[in-house]
Write a structure and sequence with these properties.
The chain is of the alpha/beta class. 37% of the residues lie in helices and 17% in strands. The structure holds S-adenosyl-L-homocysteine. Residues 240-241, 265, 315-318, 321-323, 346-347, 351, 397-398, 424, 426-428, 454-456 line the site of S-adenosyl-L-homocysteine (SAH).
């Protein structure tokens, strides 16, 4: 390791900055944000820096640098365009054993500024030891998108509860495990959703449970791996297939789950993102073998939660669009089990975007309707008169078996036989295929091409756009 990352406390400490151009202005902003008592030495200053110093209470010495400027300071930064001055500052600072940074001259530095992901009071520093600022910035971008904006709130919350927890749990090792469970679990999630009071209540409750667990363990009892009696269920939309289409919140839920329940529609790559030691339960899908009937799934969710588990129920697409998500959480609500619902990208959005078929369009469609194509006793029992507007796009979910019926009924009720229709097979995955035809021709096309589930059917003039807008090509 060439550099040791440390976090400096600069609040109220005297720091000197030599130079007052645009680069110096950026450094000044950083030093002031850290609460430093800043003195800037330079014969010239940017308007921005002057204003900053007035607002935040820094000083400007309007003259050239001299060695005495370093006296009594704890940290030195040089950002002038004059190499000789930069070198002199570095040499003087080293002689005084003061940490010094010279911007863009690693060989003159005893410390460097990392790229910072700021979730104050939480901060993440990234550095390449001065070798590749671009790489550091790229990495910073990744971490920015990985760490929820509200993580700062989590750090503040943990700070607020720290003494309370320490008083009740004297031993460091169980205390650490307790904090891990709390921050990764329901308490952390409540803080992240902005519900600090509920988070505090939960934490206190888990604290007393943990104390009795500890007593139990000492008496030879078996730990459950989870602390506290309260489980929680996350009904999570996993999107249409491509794992990159999951939300940050879905990822978080998945990575902190004790148990994951999933069905056929959820891609294996997504299930694989669960925490390594999470239990995975396949609950199938109505038509598949070994599937659990819906009633039993609902019941299982309740039982697992009552065992104190954090349960993630993964659903394809969005849980509230043809996902029976409502039914699953009704039973939870009846049992007063806490739950959250995490939206996902529904198949209609995924299929439409990846097939290059905008669901609405100024020229072709002013509305879109999501319709089930699921057959009941071999039939579709819609009121077809609702589906006749030529400026409305129709999207049929679960419509592969019913496709012949859909095409015939729409024509029988008056939609033009040449109305464009597309069938998107396994949308957003590497197996995606788009079959295009008209209400009159589609039945034969599907009979010939034999597409595999899941498929989505899009009806309306917007389908014409596919020819020009299709961008997702699988090789
Ligand atoms: N809750 C899900 C829909 C569940 S119903 C959602 O919001 O997407 C199941 C139907 O969704 C399938 O029959 C199919 O019509 C559609 N579907 C789901 N994933 C799909 C995919 N990758 N490609 C095409 N259709 C899909």
């Amino acid at each position: 390791m060439d550099y040791l990352p440390v976090s400096l406390r600069l609040r109220g400490e005297p720091v000197v900055l030599i130079g007052a151009g645009s680069v110096a202005t950026r450094k000044a902003r950083l030093l002031l944000a850290a609460g430093a008592e800043l003195t800037v030495v330079a014969p010239d200053i940017t308007q921005e820096l002057e204003t900053l110093l007035t607002e935040r209470g820094g000083q400007w010495r309007n003259r050239r640098y001299r060695e005495a400027d370093l006296h009594g300071k704890v940290l030195v930064v040089a950002a002038t365009s004059d190499r000789a001055v930069n070198r002199a500052v570095s040499a003087h600072a080293r002689a005084l054993h003061l940490p010094v940074n010279v911007v863009d001259a690693p060989q003159l530095c005893t410390f460097i500024f990392p790229a910072i992901v700021d979730r104050s009071p939480l901060s993440i520093a990234i550095s390449s030891g001065g070798r590749s600022p671009v790489l550091t910035r790229m990495l910073r971008g990744k971490i920015e998108s990985l760490v929820p904006a509200s993580y700062g709130a989590l750090a503040v919350f943990a700070g607020r509860m720290r003494d309370t927890v320490k008083r009740r749990m004297a031993l460091p090792s169980p205390r650490r495990r307790f904090w891990e469970t709390v921050l990764e679990g329901a308490v952390g999630e409540q803080v992240l959703t902005g519900n600090e009071e509920r988070a505090a209540q939960l934490l206190l409750q888990q604290l007393s449970d943990a104390a009795s667990d500890e007593a139990g363990e000492r008496a030879g009892g078996e730990g459950t791996g989870t602390i506290g009696a309260i489980g929680e269920v996350y009904l999570v939309g996993a999107g249409p297939g491509d794992p990159d289409l999951m939300t940050f919140k879905a990822m978080r839920a998945l990575q902190s789950a004790d148990v994951v329940l999933y069905d056929r529609l959820v891609a294996p790559a997504i299930v694989a993102m669960a925490r390594r030691d999470a239990e995975q339960i396949y609950v199938g899908k109505a038509r598949a073998n070994h599937a659990l009937p819906q009633r039993q799934i609902n019941q299982l969710l309740v039982e697992l939660a009552l065992q104190g588990k954090r349960v993630v129920r993964l659903k394809g697409g969005d849980p509230f669009i043809f996902g029976r998500g409502g039914e699953e959480i009704e039973l939870l609500a009846d049992h007063n089990i806490p739950f959250q619902v995490v939206p996902g990208i529904t198949a209609a959005s995924g299929a439409a975007c990846y097939a290059g078929i905008p669901l609405t369009h100024r020229d072709y469609a002013q509305s879109v309707r999501f319709v089930t194509g699921h057959l009941k006793d071999g039939e579709l029992t819609h009121d077809w008169r609702q589906f006749l507007s030529p400026t409305e796009t129709l999207v049929f979910y679960m419509g592969l078996l019913g496709l012949p019926s859909i095409c015939r009924q729409l024509q029988a009720y008056g939609r033009a036989p040449d109305t464009p229709i597309a069938l998107v097979e396994r949308a957003t995955t590497r197996e995606q295929r788009v079959l295009r035809g008209t209400l009159a021709t589609m039945e034969a096309i599907v009979a010939r091409e034999q597409p595999a589930a899941p498929t989505l059917i899009i009806v309306g003039d917007v389908v014409k756009l596919h020819r020009d807008l299709a961008w997702f090509r699988v090789s």
